[in-house]
Structures are given as structure tokens and as C-alpha cells.
Amino acid sequence: MDRRSQILTIAGHLFSQRGYHATSMRELARHLNLQGGSLYAHIQSKEELLLEVVRQAAERFQKVLEALPSGDPVTRMKALVQGHLRVIAEELPRATVFFHEWKHLSPPLLEEAKALRRRYEEGVQEVIREGVEKGVFQVENPRLATLFVLSALNWTYQWYRPDGPLSLEELSEQYAKLVLRALGVREGGEDGEA
User: Fold this and answer.
1) Residues 26-74: pLDDT tens digits?
2) Which of 2, 22, 32, 166 has its CA 20 to 30 A from that of 152?
3) Which pLDDT score, from 0 to 100, does residue 42 have?
4) What is the DSSP string of the chain?
């Protein structure tokens, strides 16, 4: 791992644990065994670090959408739920920053963060809209359904722990069932399960 990647990883951990404002550059340098001034040879500002952590998380979420199988809306939604939860589990500090700390950015960096979040949200909404058009999802308002699904998925960063009672696969399976029911998938519409 190169020095910049190390800095971003440690920054993500510190921002997620202590919060963006409570994390000082001096503290970040100490965790990296660097002199304060040496840190600025690798980055311009603390805010730049925050934006980069947000960008990395957004990229991981976007890859979930890009990897979705084509065709059946139920299969696509199951893959979306599984992929989304995997990103949270594997990138918990970055995901925490993506969901919570991004709002501390100042314009125009804040606008970039909002655009990254909106892009993913629109991709999820498209999956739901396609399911509605095919008569598989029974929701009146795909936008509201998208916000509901993302709210349910995103909140897992608050409580999910890899050593918890459910494996990531079990959690993904149960969440997918709940999401599909919320989207109005009828009994038997989940490959015979429900």
C-alpha cells in the first residue's frame, strides 16, 4: 500500500470513529508516524482527504450497480442488496464517512459529494422503476421506494459487525426478502420463497 493509500485508510478510520471535525491533522500524522509537515507532502488539506474517502466509497457503491445482472427484477434487487451490504461490511469506515461525515464538506466539494450520492440513488431508482414497469414490483412511487430501500440498507453501518450473530450472506438474504416484500413482490415471486 502506497503512502497516500495509507493516509486515506487511516483518515477514513479516524473520521468514522471520531468525526471529521474532531480529527486533527496532527492526530492523523501521529497515527501514520509522520511529522505534521510531512503529511502535507502527500495531501493538500483535511477536507481533500474527506472528499477522497467519499469518492472511494461512492466508487464501490457504483460498481455494485454496474455488476448487476440483466433481466429479472427480483434477481437484480437481490444482487443490489447483497452488493450494497458487502460494501458496507468491507468498507465500514469509508461507508460511515460516506453516510455521515460527507456533509461537513464546503462548496463546491459538497456539491461533488451530493452528485456522487445522487448518481447511486438514481441507479437504484432505475432498478426499482424497471421492476415496476415489468409488473414485478408493486409500488406507486419509485422515488419514495428508493429512499425507503436505501434508508434500510444504509442504516446497517450503525450496527453491523462481522462477528455478529448473522453472517453477511444471512443478513443479505434476510434483507433481500424484506426489501422485496416492501416492493410488493407476491408470495412465490422470489424464486418460490417468501
Assistant:
1) 999 999 998 767 788 888 899 999 999 999 999 999 999 999 999 999 9
2) 22
3) 83
4) --HHHHHHHHHHHHHHHH-TTT--HHHHHHHTT--HHHHTTT-S-HHHHHHHHHHHHHHHHHHHHHTPPSS-HHHHHHHHHHHHHHHHHHTHHHHHHHHTGGGGPPTTHHHHHHHHHHHHHHHHHHHHHHHHHTTSS--S-HHHHHHHHHHHHHGGGGT--TTSSS-HHHHHHHHHHHHHHHTTPPTTTBTTB-
> What are the domain boundaries of the chain?
50-182
Decide which of 3.40.50.12280, 1.10.357.10, 1.10.260.40, 2.40.160.20 is the CATH code for 50-182: 1.10.357.10
Tell the residue number behind the cell numbers 470513529, with chain if given.
17
149 neighbors 124 (Cβ within 8 angstroms): yes
